[in-house]
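Batch 3, record 17
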Amino acid sequence: QKEVEQNSGPLSVPEGAIASLNCTYSDRGSQSFFWYRQYSGKSPELIMSIYSNGDKEDGRFTAQLNKASQYVSLLIRDSQPSDSATYLCAVIGTGGGNKLTFGTGTQLKVEL
Amino acid sequence: DAGVTQSPTHLIKTRGQQVTLRCSPKSGHDTVSWYQQALGQGPQFIFQYYEEEERQRGNFPDRFSGHQFPNYSSELNVNALLLGDSALYLCASSTINQPQHFGDGTRLSIL
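Prediction for the assembled complex:
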């Protein structure tokens, strides 16, 4: 079992729709969760962090965390073509330090 | 406010050579982490430096070593390069209890 799992996609949504990206993790004691956006050929850019159960909203982005189900999600409202990128889920587990463990990423395509 | 800066941007080496990559953290950050990202994969943690010491290490061989300087900047050294070391090398900086921010990366190609 991979430590952090994401559907690789591509996930295609029409412009203006809600994009829903999902991530599961195996370390039950994990406390910190992040979503990074990575455009092709570029480096990851932090877009959301979440540390407690529930929803956290920032503009068009909402991160959702359910520690009991070991599940993190990212919702993007009013999707724009500029949102087309790979979205990486990252988790800090219980191994000490703040090492990020990443999933393989979900490719999102927002179509006109 | 300068973000995380990495140099060089691109590098081409041959098998068996050695390479040094450099990273300057974002202002106010004291912790530097290095990651390797192969094509189509998520970044893999190499190691992390804090107070000039390696604090945590991922599953990478001893050919990968690093250093942190008193000004918090850091170097990643890779010896005896293999074809499989071709990847994007990412540096991320942070401070206590804060998320990591990445530099633009160094793309290393091994011929």
